[in-house]
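Q: Two folds, back to back.
A: First:
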Amino acid sequence: MDRIDGTNHVAGLKQSKKAIAAGKVKIAYLAQDADPWIFESFLTFCREHGVEVIEVPTMKELAKGCRVEVPTAVACICEE
């Protein structure tokens, strides 16, 4: 999770999908304990757009890496 800290990133499903659709994402992170519907749909969305996905054990760990207060299921590193 050290890769997110200090980078241009977005957190959350809606913002992440928007950035991916715009072609701005280098790498996406997905929490393994996310709701199964979110997990599967986001994974499929990333594959369709050719974005690499790195799985993270928990939403809490992902939130910590993004420096956000609430657990988050997905986050993305964006192009500079």
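A: Second:
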Amino acid sequence: MAKQMRIKRNSQFLDIMHRLSKNKAAMAGLVLIIIEVLLAVFAKFIVPYDWNAIDIANANSFPSLQHLMGTDELGRDIFSRIIYGARYSLSIGIFATLITTVIGTFIGAVVGYYGGTFDNIIMRILDVIQAMPPILFNICIATALGSGFMNTLVALAVGGIPGAVRLVRGSVMSIRKVEYLESADSINCSKMRTIFVHVLPNAISPSIVSATMNVANLILTAASLSFIGLGVQAPTPEWGAMLSASRNYIRNYPYMVLFPGLAIAITVLALNMLGDGLRDALDPKLKD
């Protein structure tokens, strides 16, 4: 029986990947993300200059063969900083989403399955949290924790938990009364085993799509926090911090703002295209 279940899940996975591979926009987004991840991982072997090397003699140099994206006010190579910056921006988006998804999935699955008073208490607490605009909530947490890479990551992760809980809870509640769960109860399967073995695998699809989209949203939010001085701070080459540091030079040296902005825009676009493709692959009925 267990072997049959593994074969069925493998066939479902292959079917999903086949549908995803037929979506050109999603595959383009996936290729872009893979390229960015590889650039971030092997940045040390790719960049032509040290990302924090100061060269005042070449400060504010426009893009050229020597400096493909120009230099900033301290003569640091912008191309090198953007490549290294992918490490910080992608890490914030990916790891904050991972924390949010894991905690939100656990809480959402438990409250969605049990329901009752426990569910009401948790959901009312989340109602209070979600009454505050998300960006304002993130700003409050970032202000309390202070600036920096880890504090920004924690602030974004905590801010995304309520939405993840609601998403998983809704999926679990829609399937908690189906027949195969009643069969699990009839053979005295433990509640935790029922939730994490029988319920979650059939309720996790929306969370996978949401997590992909959430990475893009958190990269944008992290850039926003850095831009207003509450996220990652200079000289760390996070894309939002680079935008914040170069905003005073936008009139005379617009390339200093253009390239970090393009890096953020391309990454968010790629993740959104991949997320749309995953949504259609996981549930083809949603596709128009």
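Q: And?
A: The first helix runs from residue 2 to 21.
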